[in-house]
Amino acid sequence: MIPDKAPQEDVFHCSEDLKKESHIPSFEKYKELYTRSIENPDEFWGAIAKDFFWKTKHTGCFLDYNFDVTKGEIFVKCMEGATTNICYNLLDRNVHERKLGDKIAFFWEGNEPGDDLTVTYRELLQKVCRFANVLKSQGVKKGDRVSIYMPMVVELVVAMLACARIGAVHSIVFAGFSAESLCERIIDSQCSLLITADGFYRGDKLINLKLLADEALQKCRDKGFPLKTCIMLKHLSKEPEAAGRQSPPAKRACPDLEEKRKVKKTRPVPKVPWNPDVDLCWHSLMGGAADECEPEWCESEDPLFILYTSGSTGKPKGVLHTVSGYLLYAATTFKLVFDHQPDDVYWCTADIGWITGHSYITYGPLANGATSVLFEGLPTYPDVGRMWQIVDKYQVTKFYTAPTAIRLLMKYGSDPVQKHNRKSLKVLGTVGEPINPEAWQWYHGVVGEKRCPIVDTFWQTETGGHVLTPLPAATPTKPGSATFPFFGVVPAILNESGEELEGPSEGYLVFKQPWPGVMRSVYGNHERFEATYFKKFPGYYVTGDGCRRDKDGYYWITGRIDDMLNVSGHLLSTAEVESALVEHKSVAEAAVVSCPHMVKGESLYCFVTLNDGVAFSQALEAELRKQVREKIGAIATPDYIQNAPGLPKTRSGKIMRRVLRKIACDEKDMGDISTLADSSVVDELFRNRCATTV
Ligand code: WT7
User: pLDDT-based confidence at 517, cuts 50/70/90?
Assistant: First the structure.
């Protein structure tokens, strides 16, 4: 239950100034609307839906669902009968109906300071229509899946919205993932086309993306899944030299976004391999494409996109989101959680390859006609003041980042922050993992000069948008708490036997009913969807997170309670890393646990048992690190690898991760280890543990 009155003590209140212009200016207003959203969802969401364009109206109730596995198949249907197009709502509606054609949609800021460009809503619409026509000319139809593997460039937004325009389903794979991961995702989603770029720089480091894409396509062919088409954007090079048989067309047939970039790059460009049987050049295709493209009118529950997230079995799950519910939810959470105003300049530092970028760089902001910063680079390049330099450059008003970035910058003290003017800032947000109160205080005090409310937004790839979150002018905040549910969301805390706990309590965080943005299925595997989220406690959506509710009703996420790790705000499963390790010929068995890390939140501590006769060495350690990077990606690189001639196991042979966690964290108090088959292995592991830094 949400309290009638917000607490007045030990909380942070929003300034009166900010309340004046706010959509939800008080806790009472939040409470009133929240109650309405639960008691009368048809009326609540119906009013919101009026702001958007529907080719045909929905019939019947707003949300129809079954959340109880014992009563049949799990389903959620939002606005059945309605037809619309999400790209039309993001672009055409803003350009034609709301007359925002000349408004800037994105300030694109490249890796190099000074390398930038702006894109208006009208320009974005034109690019999207052209690229939609390109996709159609390549035979992409409604319902087809398209993989996108691109850096943070405007063309990534163009590619995703072009898919949405023609009813194709995009599956974006974060450009930090390995070729192996890309291949796995292409095959799982049965994609017919891949969109990529030549490469990009992350700070000083060149990422030769096309090389990785080619490697992935080769792996796909080897596994009997040949992809016919790969479209490559030239981001780094104007005239890339070809190492392959035939070079991509050197001249650009169409004046495009690249021409607007002020800084011409001086860095070396990658050699781009070119396979004329498969590869096509983005620019020459765009040159030949028409500026108009009638949107495909989609049903509410037609798929919009697939986005892969780690699963506890090790195989990533293709989280499926659908058109209408996701549109309404991304748009509404963006508007209210960042208290969006027409003259805002909003900046979310996430990568579009993660759900945060999908919902809060592309869909939510564009649905509101917002102006956003789209940043390609790193917070520490060329120096640790880059974020605040960008805030000042574009006069950013709403800023959204991850606790790991805050902790990283905190290490360098307040000088690099204070060198830049941050007067424009009004609201600060965080996402991805629990934020420790110390980092919260620094963000609030140093970055926001105690002037800006902090919205600590709890959500998941699966939830589509924020589910527990403060509203900046309405919710008094407590550092480290994601506070209260968003409209339409009904949380509960369950104990191990599935009983709902009332009042102050701690247990499993679950949700009792759907909201428009909740995922609809695991792509191609509805049973896995039901088993993962609905089986443990019938009648509830299970988040996999632990949670505490305090005496004032505030929710505090305590972290994952399954075999998942959260490294720098990204979920990884222990099983996924373990299976990458055991694929190495020298490894017999592996067990991975996490230990706390100052900046990343958690770090990966791996125990490996080697095959008979293999000696542990630094060279082997390096090989194992490389192996994990190649199988999954750099985010999964092990921090520590310990040689473990024996692992602590139960008599039935199950690895006791709880014990390994204690060893990794250097905690001598083991708790009850009576089920351990051979306790001498524990002493041995303790003696040889890696020296960790937290
Ligand atoms: C998991 C979801 C949602 C976009 C980024 C991550 C953790 C997320 C918070 C927060 C505490 C958080 C949870 C969740 N998480 N936000 N504000 N406070 N924990 O998306 O990769 O699907 O990960 O991230 O553990 O289950 P994701």
Answer: very high
